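Researcher: Good morning. I'm working through a list of sequences from a screen, and I'd like to move beyond sequence-only analysis. For each chain I'm collecting a predicted structure so we can compare shapes side by side. This is the next one on the list. No need for commentary yet; just the structure.
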Amino acid sequence: MSKIRIIAWRELLAIVRTKAFIIGLLMAPAFIVVGVLMAPSVSEDELAEATETIVIASADSDIADRVRAQLPLATIEFVDYPTLDTERRQALDARLVAGSLDLVLEIAPSVAPTREVEPAIAAAPAIALRTTTPTSSLPLALKRITRDLVQRARLTATGLTPGQVEQLSTKPTVSIVDPTVTPFLTMLLVFMTVLSGGTQLLNATIEEKQQRIAEVLLGSVSPEQLMAGKLLGAVSVALTMVAVYLTGGIAYASWAGYGELVDPIIVATIFVQVAIATLMFGALFVACGAASNDAKDAQAYLTPLMMLLTAPLFAGSAIMTSPNGPLAIALSLFPLSAPSVMPMRMSLSNSVPMWQPALSLISELMFTAALVWLAGRIFRVGLLAQGKRPSLRELWRWIRRA
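Model: Good morning. C-alpha coordinates for this chain:
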Protein backbone atom coordinates (compact mmCIF):
# COMPACT_ATOMS: atom_id res chain seq x y z
CA MET A 1 0.00 0.00 0.00
CA SER A 2 2.93 2.32 0.76
CA LYS A 3 4.27 1.83 -2.78
CA ILE A 4 0.88 2.73 -4.26
CA ARG A 5 0.74 5.85 -2.08
CA ILE A 6 4.25 6.88 -3.20
CA ILE A 7 3.35 6.44 -6.87
CA ALA A 8 0.08 8.36 -6.44
CA TRP A 9 1.88 11.22 -4.68
CA ARG A 10 4.53 11.31 -7.42
CA GLU A 11 1.85 11.43 -10.13
CA LEU A 12 0.02 14.22 -8.32
CA LEU A 13 3.12 16.37 -7.88
CA ALA A 14 4.32 15.70 -11.43
CA ILE A 15 1.08 17.19 -12.77
CA VAL A 16 0.16 20.00 -10.38
CA ARG A 17 3.66 21.48 -10.44
CA THR A 18 3.63 22.02 -14.19
CA LYS A 19 2.87 25.40 -15.75
CA ALA A 20 0.40 23.73 -18.14
CA PHE A 21 -1.74 22.51 -15.23
CA ILE A 22 -1.78 25.91 -13.52
CA ILE A 23 -2.57 27.73 -16.77
CA GLY A 24 -5.31 25.24 -17.61
CA LEU A 25 -6.75 25.54 -14.10
CA LEU A 26 -6.99 29.32 -14.41
CA MET A 27 -8.08 29.42 -18.04
CA ALA A 28 -11.78 28.61 -17.53
CA PRO A 29 -12.46 31.29 -14.88
CA ALA A 30 -10.31 33.71 -16.86
CA PHE A 31 -12.52 33.26 -19.93
CA ILE A 32 -15.62 33.91 -17.81
CA VAL A 33 -14.12 37.09 -16.34
CA VAL A 34 -13.04 38.32 -19.78
CA GLY A 35 -16.53 37.65 -21.15
CA VAL A 36 -18.09 39.71 -18.36
CA LEU A 37 -15.61 42.54 -18.78
CA MET A 38 -16.12 42.64 -22.55
CA ALA A 39 -19.89 43.03 -22.23
CA PRO A 40 -20.98 46.37 -23.72
CA SER A 41 -21.09 48.99 -20.98
CA VAL A 42 -20.10 52.61 -20.61
CA SER A 43 -19.40 54.47 -17.39
CA GLU A 44 -20.22 58.13 -16.85
CA ASP A 45 -16.54 59.04 -17.28
CA GLU A 46 -16.42 57.27 -20.64
CA LEU A 47 -19.56 59.08 -21.77
CA ALA A 48 -17.96 62.38 -20.84
CA GLU A 49 -15.04 61.52 -23.12
CA ALA A 50 -17.15 60.43 -26.10
CA THR A 51 -16.35 62.43 -29.26
CA GLU A 52 -18.92 61.02 -31.68
CA THR A 53 -21.15 63.12 -33.92
CA ILE A 54 -24.78 62.85 -32.79
CA VAL A 55 -28.03 64.35 -34.01
CA ILE A 56 -30.71 64.86 -31.35
CA ALA A 57 -34.24 65.29 -32.69
CA SER A 58 -36.64 66.38 -29.96
CA ALA A 59 -39.62 68.62 -29.38
CA ASP A 60 -38.53 69.09 -25.76
CA SER A 61 -35.40 71.22 -25.58
CA ASP A 62 -34.99 70.49 -21.85
CA ILE A 63 -34.57 66.75 -22.42
CA ALA A 64 -32.24 67.43 -25.34
CA ASP A 65 -30.12 69.73 -23.20
CA ARG A 66 -29.88 67.09 -20.47
CA VAL A 67 -28.70 64.49 -23.00
CA ARG A 68 -26.23 67.03 -24.38
CA ALA A 69 -24.89 67.58 -20.85
CA GLN A 70 -23.96 63.91 -20.64
CA LEU A 71 -21.76 64.27 -23.75
CA PRO A 72 -19.71 67.46 -23.35
CA LEU A 73 -17.06 66.50 -25.92
CA ALA A 74 -19.39 65.06 -28.55
CA THR A 75 -20.50 67.03 -31.59
CA ILE A 76 -24.23 67.55 -31.05
CA GLU A 77 -26.67 68.76 -33.71
CA PHE A 78 -30.18 69.66 -32.56
CA VAL A 79 -33.24 69.16 -34.80
CA ASP A 80 -36.78 70.18 -33.89
CA TYR A 81 -38.75 66.92 -33.99
CA PRO A 82 -41.81 68.22 -35.93
CA THR A 83 -39.47 69.19 -38.81
CA LEU A 84 -38.05 65.66 -39.02
CA ASP A 85 -39.88 64.46 -42.13
CA THR A 86 -39.11 61.51 -44.39
CA GLU A 87 -36.75 63.47 -46.61
CA ARG A 88 -34.70 64.69 -43.66
CA ARG A 89 -34.54 61.21 -42.17
CA GLN A 90 -33.21 59.85 -45.47
CA ALA A 91 -30.55 62.54 -45.49
CA LEU A 92 -29.50 61.61 -41.96
CA ASP A 93 -29.42 57.91 -42.90
CA ALA A 94 -27.15 58.77 -45.81
CA ARG A 95 -24.76 60.50 -43.42
CA LEU A 96 -24.83 57.45 -41.11
CA VAL A 97 -23.90 55.16 -43.99
CA ALA A 98 -21.18 57.55 -45.18
CA GLY A 99 -19.66 57.66 -41.69
CA SER A 100 -19.96 61.41 -41.17
CA LEU A 101 -22.61 60.81 -38.53
CA ASP A 102 -22.46 58.25 -35.73
CA LEU A 103 -25.93 58.27 -34.22
CA VAL A 104 -29.37 59.85 -34.48
CA LEU A 105 -31.39 60.08 -31.27
CA GLU A 106 -35.10 60.75 -31.82
CA ILE A 107 -37.20 61.73 -28.81
CA ALA A 108 -40.84 61.96 -29.85
CA PRO A 109 -43.19 64.52 -28.27
CA SER A 110 -45.30 61.68 -26.87
CA VAL A 111 -42.73 60.95 -24.18
CA ALA A 112 -43.45 64.19 -22.27
CA PRO A 113 -45.69 66.52 -24.32
CA THR A 114 -44.99 70.20 -23.75
CA ARG A 115 -46.94 71.57 -26.70
CA GLU A 116 -49.62 70.55 -29.14
CA VAL A 117 -48.37 68.44 -32.03
CA GLU A 118 -49.99 66.67 -34.95
CA PRO A 119 -51.54 63.26 -34.13
CA ALA A 120 -49.18 61.43 -36.51
CA ILE A 121 -46.16 62.93 -34.76
CA ALA A 122 -47.53 62.26 -31.28
CA ALA A 123 -48.09 58.58 -32.19
CA ALA A 124 -44.44 58.06 -33.19
CA PRO A 125 -42.21 55.72 -31.15
CA ALA A 126 -41.14 57.45 -27.91
CA ILE A 127 -37.39 56.96 -28.33
CA ALA A 128 -35.59 55.80 -31.47
CA LEU A 129 -31.87 55.28 -32.01
CA ARG A 130 -30.61 55.16 -35.57
CA THR A 131 -27.05 53.94 -36.00
CA THR A 132 -24.97 51.55 -38.07
CA THR A 133 -23.45 50.06 -34.88
CA PRO A 134 -26.50 49.16 -32.75
CA THR A 135 -24.62 46.75 -30.45
CA SER A 136 -21.78 49.11 -29.57
CA SER A 137 -21.57 50.61 -26.11
CA LEU A 138 -22.59 54.21 -26.86
CA PRO A 139 -26.08 53.48 -28.32
CA LEU A 140 -26.84 51.16 -25.41
CA ALA A 141 -25.74 53.80 -22.90
CA LEU A 142 -27.72 56.57 -24.62
CA LYS A 143 -30.79 54.38 -24.67
CA ARG A 144 -30.55 53.89 -20.90
CA ILE A 145 -29.81 57.56 -20.15
CA THR A 146 -32.56 58.91 -22.41
CA ARG A 147 -35.12 56.53 -20.95
CA ASP A 148 -34.25 57.72 -17.45
CA LEU A 149 -34.46 61.39 -18.47
CA VAL A 150 -37.83 60.85 -20.13
CA GLN A 151 -39.17 59.13 -17.05
CA ARG A 152 -38.04 62.05 -14.88
CA ALA A 153 -39.62 64.56 -17.31
CA ARG A 154 -42.95 62.75 -17.15
CA LEU A 155 -42.89 62.69 -13.35
CA THR A 156 -41.97 66.37 -13.18
CA ALA A 157 -44.83 67.23 -15.54
CA THR A 158 -47.29 65.81 -13.00
CA GLY A 159 -46.25 68.43 -10.45
CA LEU A 160 -44.08 66.28 -8.21
CA THR A 161 -41.25 67.86 -6.25
CA PRO A 162 -37.62 67.10 -7.24
CA GLY A 163 -37.26 64.90 -4.12
CA GLN A 164 -40.33 62.87 -5.06
CA VAL A 165 -39.09 62.53 -8.64
CA GLU A 166 -35.72 61.28 -7.39
CA GLN A 167 -37.38 58.77 -5.09
CA LEU A 168 -39.68 57.43 -7.79
CA SER A 169 -36.85 57.30 -10.35
CA THR A 170 -34.64 55.12 -8.16
CA LYS A 171 -34.64 51.68 -9.74
CA PRO A 172 -34.87 48.58 -7.56
CA THR A 173 -32.10 46.02 -7.74
CA VAL A 174 -33.08 43.19 -10.06
CA SER A 175 -31.42 39.80 -9.75
CA ILE A 176 -31.53 37.50 -12.78
CA VAL A 177 -31.10 33.83 -12.00
CA ASP A 178 -30.90 31.29 -14.83
CA PRO A 179 -31.87 27.88 -13.38
CA THR A 180 -30.01 26.05 -16.18
CA VAL A 181 -26.59 27.61 -15.55
CA THR A 182 -25.65 25.62 -12.44
CA PRO A 183 -26.72 22.21 -13.86
CA PHE A 184 -24.84 22.85 -17.10
CA LEU A 185 -21.72 24.00 -15.27
CA THR A 186 -21.96 20.90 -13.07
CA MET A 187 -21.93 18.61 -16.10
CA LEU A 188 -19.16 20.64 -17.72
CA LEU A 189 -17.05 20.48 -14.55
CA VAL A 190 -17.23 16.68 -14.43
CA PHE A 191 -16.40 16.46 -18.14
CA MET A 192 -13.41 18.83 -17.90
CA THR A 193 -11.83 17.15 -14.89
CA VAL A 194 -12.25 13.62 -16.24
CA LEU A 195 -10.94 14.58 -19.68
CA SER A 196 -7.96 16.39 -18.18
CA GLY A 197 -7.02 13.51 -15.89
CA GLY A 198 -7.60 10.88 -18.56
CA THR A 199 -5.45 12.49 -21.23
CA GLN A 200 -2.63 13.05 -18.73
CA LEU A 201 -2.76 9.36 -17.78
CA LEU A 202 -2.70 8.35 -21.44
CA ASN A 203 0.27 10.54 -22.32
CA ALA A 204 2.24 9.54 -19.21
CA THR A 205 1.71 5.82 -19.87
CA ILE A 206 2.78 6.11 -23.52
CA GLU A 207 5.85 8.15 -22.56
CA GLU A 208 6.92 5.62 -19.90
CA LYS A 209 6.44 2.78 -22.35
CA GLN A 210 8.36 4.47 -25.18
CA GLN A 211 11.32 5.48 -23.01
CA ARG A 212 11.46 2.10 -21.22
CA ILE A 213 10.80 3.81 -17.88
CA ALA A 214 8.06 1.27 -17.18
CA GLU A 215 10.58 -1.60 -17.30
CA VAL A 216 12.61 0.08 -14.57
CA LEU A 217 9.53 0.77 -12.45
CA LEU A 218 8.30 -2.81 -12.76
CA GLY A 219 11.57 -3.93 -11.18
CA SER A 220 10.36 -2.40 -7.92
CA VAL A 221 6.58 -2.59 -8.05
CA SER A 222 4.00 -4.88 -9.61
CA PRO A 223 1.91 -3.77 -12.62
CA GLU A 224 -1.16 -3.66 -10.39
CA GLN A 225 0.55 -1.36 -7.89
CA LEU A 226 1.82 0.91 -10.68
CA MET A 227 -1.61 1.20 -12.25
CA ALA A 228 -3.34 1.72 -8.88
CA GLY A 229 -0.88 4.50 -8.04
CA LYS A 230 -1.47 6.19 -11.38
CA LEU A 231 -5.24 6.06 -10.97
CA LEU A 232 -5.15 7.39 -7.41
CA GLY A 233 -2.84 10.18 -8.56
CA ALA A 234 -5.29 11.08 -11.34
CA VAL A 235 -8.17 11.09 -8.84
CA SER A 236 -6.18 13.42 -6.57
CA VAL A 237 -5.57 15.82 -9.46
CA ALA A 238 -9.25 15.75 -10.46
CA LEU A 239 -10.43 16.40 -6.91
CA THR A 240 -7.93 19.26 -6.61
CA MET A 241 -9.41 20.88 -9.71
CA VAL A 242 -12.95 20.38 -8.44
CA ALA A 243 -12.05 21.84 -5.05
CA VAL A 244 -10.55 24.94 -6.65
CA TYR A 245 -13.49 25.53 -9.00
CA LEU A 246 -16.19 24.82 -6.42
CA THR A 247 -14.51 26.99 -3.80
CA GLY A 248 -14.39 29.88 -6.27
CA GLY A 249 -17.97 29.28 -7.38
CA ILE A 250 -19.34 29.09 -3.83
CA ALA A 251 -17.38 32.21 -2.83
CA TYR A 252 -18.81 34.13 -5.79
CA ALA A 253 -22.34 32.89 -5.05
CA SER A 254 -22.04 34.05 -1.44
CA TRP A 255 -20.68 37.44 -2.54
CA ALA A 256 -23.49 37.87 -5.08
CA GLY A 257 -26.14 37.01 -2.48
CA TYR A 258 -26.92 33.48 -3.73
CA GLY A 259 -25.17 31.59 -0.95
CA GLU A 260 -28.42 30.00 0.22
CA LEU A 261 -28.77 28.30 -3.17
CA VAL A 262 -25.62 26.20 -2.61
CA ASP A 263 -26.71 22.65 -1.75
CA PRO A 264 -24.09 20.72 0.29
CA ILE A 265 -25.55 17.41 -0.94
CA ILE A 266 -24.95 18.34 -4.57
CA VAL A 267 -21.43 19.57 -3.75
CA ALA A 268 -20.64 16.24 -2.05
CA THR A 269 -22.22 14.37 -4.98
CA ILE A 270 -19.96 16.18 -7.44
CA PHE A 271 -16.83 15.17 -5.49
CA VAL A 272 -17.93 11.53 -5.32
CA GLN A 273 -18.95 11.37 -8.98
CA VAL A 274 -15.73 13.01 -10.18
CA ALA A 275 -13.68 10.47 -8.21
CA ILE A 276 -15.63 7.54 -9.66
CA ALA A 277 -15.60 8.93 -13.20
CA THR A 278 -11.84 9.52 -13.05
CA LEU A 279 -11.26 5.93 -11.90
CA MET A 280 -13.61 4.62 -14.56
CA PHE A 281 -12.36 6.53 -17.57
CA GLY A 282 -8.81 6.70 -16.19
CA ALA A 283 -8.65 2.90 -16.31
CA LEU A 284 -9.71 3.00 -19.94
CA PHE A 285 -7.13 5.68 -20.80
CA VAL A 286 -4.37 3.76 -19.00
CA ALA A 287 -5.28 0.58 -20.88
CA CYS A 288 -5.22 2.50 -24.17
CA GLY A 289 -1.79 3.90 -23.34
CA ALA A 290 -0.40 0.49 -22.46
CA ALA A 291 -1.75 -1.00 -25.70
CA SER A 292 -0.29 1.81 -27.85
CA ASN A 293 3.29 2.31 -29.00
CA ASP A 294 2.84 6.03 -29.64
CA ALA A 295 0.23 8.77 -29.76
CA LYS A 296 -0.74 7.81 -33.30
CA ASP A 297 -1.70 4.30 -32.21
CA ALA A 298 -3.73 5.71 -29.33
CA GLN A 299 -5.97 7.71 -31.69
CA ALA A 300 -7.71 4.51 -32.78
CA TYR A 301 -8.81 3.88 -29.20
CA LEU A 302 -9.53 7.50 -28.33
CA THR A 303 -12.40 7.98 -30.79
CA PRO A 304 -14.88 5.60 -29.07
CA LEU A 305 -13.67 6.78 -25.65
CA MET A 306 -14.36 10.41 -26.48
CA MET A 307 -17.79 9.51 -27.84
CA LEU A 308 -18.66 7.85 -24.54
CA LEU A 309 -17.30 10.78 -22.55
CA THR A 310 -19.05 13.51 -24.56
CA ALA A 311 -22.39 11.76 -25.10
CA PRO A 312 -24.01 13.34 -21.98
CA LEU A 313 -23.09 16.82 -23.24
CA PHE A 314 -25.12 16.29 -26.42
CA ALA A 315 -28.09 15.13 -24.35
CA GLY A 316 -27.76 18.07 -21.93
CA SER A 317 -30.48 20.16 -23.56
CA ALA A 318 -33.01 17.32 -23.43
CA ILE A 319 -32.10 16.60 -19.80
CA MET A 320 -32.57 20.24 -18.78
CA THR A 321 -35.96 20.30 -20.51
CA SER A 322 -37.15 17.16 -18.76
CA PRO A 323 -34.89 16.18 -15.82
CA ASN A 324 -37.24 13.38 -14.78
CA GLY A 325 -37.96 12.11 -18.28
CA PRO A 326 -37.09 8.63 -19.57
CA LEU A 327 -33.87 9.77 -21.30
CA ALA A 328 -32.59 11.61 -18.23
CA ILE A 329 -33.37 8.67 -15.94
CA ALA A 330 -31.74 6.16 -18.30
CA LEU A 331 -28.55 8.19 -18.69
CA SER A 332 -28.32 8.85 -14.94
CA LEU A 333 -28.48 5.09 -14.25
CA PHE A 334 -26.08 4.05 -17.05
CA PRO A 335 -22.62 3.82 -15.40
CA LEU A 336 -20.63 5.61 -18.12
CA SER A 337 -22.92 8.66 -18.26
CA ALA A 338 -24.18 8.71 -14.66
CA PRO A 339 -21.26 10.73 -13.21
CA SER A 340 -22.20 13.68 -15.43
CA VAL A 341 -25.97 13.31 -15.58
CA MET A 342 -26.93 12.48 -11.99
CA PRO A 343 -25.48 15.68 -10.40
CA MET A 344 -27.08 17.65 -13.22
CA ARG A 345 -30.50 16.12 -12.55
CA MET A 346 -30.19 16.67 -8.79
CA SER A 347 -29.39 20.35 -9.30
CA LEU A 348 -32.29 20.74 -11.74
CA SER A 349 -35.02 19.02 -9.76
CA ASN A 350 -35.78 18.39 -6.10
CA SER A 351 -38.06 15.50 -7.00
CA VAL A 352 -35.38 12.96 -7.96
CA PRO A 353 -36.28 9.80 -5.95
CA MET A 354 -33.51 8.80 -3.53
CA TRP A 355 -33.41 5.27 -4.89
CA GLN A 356 -32.15 6.54 -8.23
CA PRO A 357 -28.92 8.20 -6.93
CA ALA A 358 -28.38 5.15 -4.69
CA LEU A 359 -28.87 2.68 -7.54
CA SER A 360 -26.71 4.82 -9.82
CA LEU A 361 -23.88 4.88 -7.27
CA ILE A 362 -24.00 1.11 -6.76
CA SER A 363 -23.97 0.42 -10.50
CA GLU A 364 -21.09 2.86 -11.01
CA LEU A 365 -18.99 1.25 -8.28
CA MET A 366 -19.59 -2.26 -9.61
CA PHE A 367 -18.92 -1.22 -13.20
CA THR A 368 -15.79 0.72 -12.21
CA ALA A 369 -14.40 -2.26 -10.27
CA ALA A 370 -14.93 -4.53 -13.28
CA LEU A 371 -13.45 -1.96 -15.64
CA VAL A 372 -10.36 -1.41 -13.48
CA TRP A 373 -9.83 -5.18 -13.33
CA LEU A 374 -10.10 -5.55 -17.11
CA ALA A 375 -7.85 -2.53 -17.72
CA GLY A 376 -5.32 -3.97 -15.26
CA ARG A 377 -5.06 -7.17 -17.32
CA ILE A 378 -4.36 -5.15 -20.47
CA PHE A 379 -1.93 -2.88 -18.58
CA ARG A 380 0.00 -5.88 -17.23
CA VAL A 381 0.76 -7.27 -20.69
CA GLY A 382 0.71 -4.14 -22.85
CA LEU A 383 3.18 -2.12 -20.79
CA LEU A 384 6.06 -4.40 -21.88
CA ALA A 385 4.69 -5.31 -25.31
CA GLN A 386 6.32 -3.82 -28.40
CA GLY A 387 5.54 -3.98 -32.10
CA LYS A 388 2.32 -3.29 -33.94
CA ARG A 389 -0.83 -2.09 -32.27
CA PRO A 390 -2.86 -5.06 -30.96
CA SER A 391 -6.24 -5.82 -32.47
CA LEU A 392 -9.38 -6.29 -30.39
CA ARG A 393 -8.91 -10.06 -30.57
CA GLU A 394 -5.38 -9.76 -29.22
CA LEU A 395 -6.59 -7.47 -26.43
CA TRP A 396 -9.13 -10.10 -25.45
CA ARG A 397 -6.33 -12.69 -25.44
CA TRP A 398 -4.34 -10.47 -23.10
CA ILE A 399 -7.30 -10.21 -20.73
CA ARG A 400 -7.77 -13.99 -20.65
CA ARG A 401 -4.10 -14.92 -20.24
CA ALA A 402 -2.74 -12.15 -18.01
